[in-house]
Write a structure and sequence with these properties.
With 124 residues, this protein is an alpha+beta fold. The chain has a single domain, classed as S16 Ribosomal Protein, Chain: A (2-Layer Sandwich), CATH 3.30.1320.10. It has helices spanning 51-60, 66-75, 77-89, 94-107; strands at 3-10, 17-24, 35-41, 46-50, 63-64, 111-114, 117-121. A 7-stranded mixed β-sheet has the order 5-1-2-3-4-7-6. β3 (35-41) and β4 (46-50) form a beta hairpin. This is Small ribosomal subunit protein bS16.
């Protein structure tokens, strides 16, 4: 079953709001989905996402759409997946990967951590 990470549109006309979902690629845009990973509001540029779940699905082979790929990059999910590939290859251990990811979060002052939910607010 081909899996995609994509946006599911919500909100009224002229006020879009999206959920970031994992869905079968054959299902319609606003149809059935497997799991909700987060939310994206393009009007306020606010991204909320469970990065651990996103990394889990990326490692399982889910293909993000172009827009979701840029959101995953801004929130750091693609970087965390990259670090876990290094752990799997034996370049460093999991603790070092988590350490590098937390340093990335500290360096990137637009990303805020709330338990395992990361919040990204774009500068205006």
């Amino acid at each position: 079953m081909p899996i995609k990470i994509r946006l599911q549109r919500l909100g009224r006309k002229g006020m879009p709001f999206y959920h970031i979902v994992v869905a079968d690629s054959r299902s319609p845009r606003d149809g059935k989905y497997i799991e909700t990973l987060g939310a994206y509001n393009p009007l306020t540029k606010l991204i909320k996402m469970y990065v651990d779940s996103a990394v889990f699905w990326l490692e399982k082979g889910a293909q993000p759409t172009d827009t979701v790929r840029s959101l995953l990059s801004k929130i750091g999910a693609l970087y965390k997946k990259h670090l876990f590939i290094g752990v799997r290859k034996g370049a460093f251990d999991k603790k070092e990967a988590e350490n590098r990811f937390s340093k990335w979060i500290e360096k990137n002052n637009n990303v805020y951590v709330n338990k395992n939910l990361l919040v990204f607010i774009k500068d205006k």
